[in-house]
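User: Before I run my own analysis I want an independent prediction to cross-check against. Here's the chain; please return only the structure tokens and, at the end, one sentence I can use as a sanity check.
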Amino acid sequence: MLAHLLTKIYRWRLALAAGLTALLLALLWISPAESTLGQTVKLVYLHGALVRTAIVLLVLSLPVNLVGLISGRAGWLAWGRALAMAALFIWLGHTLVSMITTYATWGVFIAWFEPRTRFTFNLAFVAVLVLAVDWLMNNRRFSALAFGGLAAAALALLPSLGFVQHPLDPIGQSTSGSIHLFYTAILVVSLGLGGLLALWLGQPDSTEAQ
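Assistant: Structure tokens:
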């Protein structure tokens, strides 16, 4: 049943991706402004949603890659790689969005004094290296080890990151119910796009012929 559903979603992936992207843009367009940041807060919505989507995918990828590494089963290896790759691609996109958001809110493209900014760029750099090595090695078990290790390291470091100027949770600390509602909707759509990307990367091409 689940495999059949995933195959159906995979077949409609382009339409679903277009629909979710259009919905995301619409939500960002009509989402409420904020008293301090004004319309710029919409970049913060997108920035926060992308970060959380990437982290959720990293969390999911870790046990899948671990099982794949231990068992060597093709299905686990394929989905572990797909989840990790989707997380890293989204993280790279988030890195670009964070530069725009930082400039719009703080007046600089890269606030290197901020621990979270350094973490963002360091992880993006390592992600590019791991993706390149994975492509060169073309070995699924190595992929499970590399992606699993990167996910474990990133998730272990996240709780220890400090703050200089970056607020702990700017959306969560807001007292506006509409801001919470729209941000939640944006996050759900972002998670949907992230899941679709992972499915796109993990589903075998043979399903198109089924």
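Sanity check: Residues 74-106 form the longest helix (33 residues).
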